[in-house]
């Protein structure tokens, strides 16, 4: 195995008295296509936010390319650039598509505006949205907004190779999309990886997204990793947690909510 790009060692995290992650060990490798699975509320987004440096663990250590991270992303320079595609696309409604995609470049580089416009239009072309620079997010469908947020995640400074995102973190990028729009986004996630060579970790509930984007799967439940392996291994494992999660069976070790919202054991 190569050296991990990201390593979480013994990570625990609670919000108030709710323990969300309980002593998690997790690695992401430089060429990984990792899908993080698990029932709602099990801590998947929390894992992404910890990796991104948007949240600090209560205990445990986070290593990025072998170097221990201290503090949050905002506290200092990080030598591995990561980008996150948020669940709700997180676009600025008052900015145009072009301004959203170029947001990082406008605020964190000294590139001239004309150059930023060129990069933005190149990234929009990569996600199949050429010529949409002047529209506002409200004028787009949910699938198009997701694609704009993908374009923003890969809008790096081409004059600075240190600036290429080496890890993309996707939080439910196909949630709420119809099957065809989901396929477009899933293929895009694959294509972007092929073109730029970054690793990614993707949180998803959708079987099509697991199938098309996850080469390696991790199943989180009640704050712990209860299964991990390749997609091929997932098809044959008799691990009851993974089987139940992938088939959507209501009977099994994963507790589900019944129609009135109470937990059934
Ligand atoms: N900033 C926060 N403050 C308080 N509680 C939080 C915070 N962030 C997350 N939580 C709680 O932690 C638990 C795990 O949240 P998280 O978003 O990581 O779950 P998830 O597995 O991604 O869920 P989903 O699949 O529904 O998006 C939830 O119960 C959530 O309410």
TrEMBL record:
Entry's Gene Ontology molecular function annotations: ATP binding; ATP hydrolysis activity
Keyword Transferase: no
ATP-binding in keyword set: yes
Signal sequence interval, chain numbering: none
Chain ranges of the ABC transporter domain: 6-247
Entries under SUPFAM superfamilies matching the protein: P-loop containing nucleoside triphosphate hydrolases (SSF52540)
InterPro entries to which the protein is assigned, alphabetical: AAA+_ATPase, ABC_transporter-like_ATP-bd, ABC_transporter-like_CS, P-loop_NTPase
Swiss-Prot/TrEMBL keywords: ATP-binding, Nucleotide-binding, Transport
Name of the featured protein: ABC transporter ATP-binding protein
Provenance organism: Parathermosynechococcus lividus PCC 6715
Lineage summary: Bacteria, Bacillati, Cyanobacteriota, Cyanophyceae, Acaryochloridales
């Amino acid at each position: 195995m190569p050296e991990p790009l990201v390593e979480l060692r013994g990570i625990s995290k609670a919000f108030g008295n709710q323990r969300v992650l309980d002593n998690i060990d997790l690695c992401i490798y430089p060429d990984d296509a990792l899908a993080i699975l698990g029932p709602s509320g099990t801590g998947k987004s929390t894992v992404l936010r910890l990796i991104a440096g948007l949240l600090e663990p209560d205990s445990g250590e986070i290593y990025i390319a072998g170097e221990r991270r201290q503090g949050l992303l905002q506290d200092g320079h990080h030598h591995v650039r990561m980008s996150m595609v948020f669940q709700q696309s997180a676009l600025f409604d008052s900015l145009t598509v072009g301004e959203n995609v170029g947001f990082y470049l406008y605020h964190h580089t000294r590139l001239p505006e004309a150059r930023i416009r060129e990069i933005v239009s190149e990234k929009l072309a990569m996600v199949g949205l050429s010529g949409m620079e002047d529209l506002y997010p409200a004028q787009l469908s949910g699938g198009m907004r997701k694609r704009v947020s993908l374009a923003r995640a890969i809008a790096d400074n081409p004059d600075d190779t240190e600036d290429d995102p080496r890890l993309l973190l996707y939080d439910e990028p196909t949630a709420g999309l119809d099957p065809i729009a989901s396929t477009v986004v899933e293929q895009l996630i694959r294509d972007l990886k092929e073109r730029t060579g970054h690793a990614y970790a993707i949180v998803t509930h959708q079987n099509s997204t697991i199938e098309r984007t996850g080469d390696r799967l991790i199943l989180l439940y009640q704050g712990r990793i209860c299964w991990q392996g390749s997609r091929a291994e997932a098809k044959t494992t008799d691990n009851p947690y993974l089987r139940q999660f992938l088939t959507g069976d209501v009977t099994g070790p994963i507790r589900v909510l019944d129609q009135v919202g109470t937990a059934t054991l």
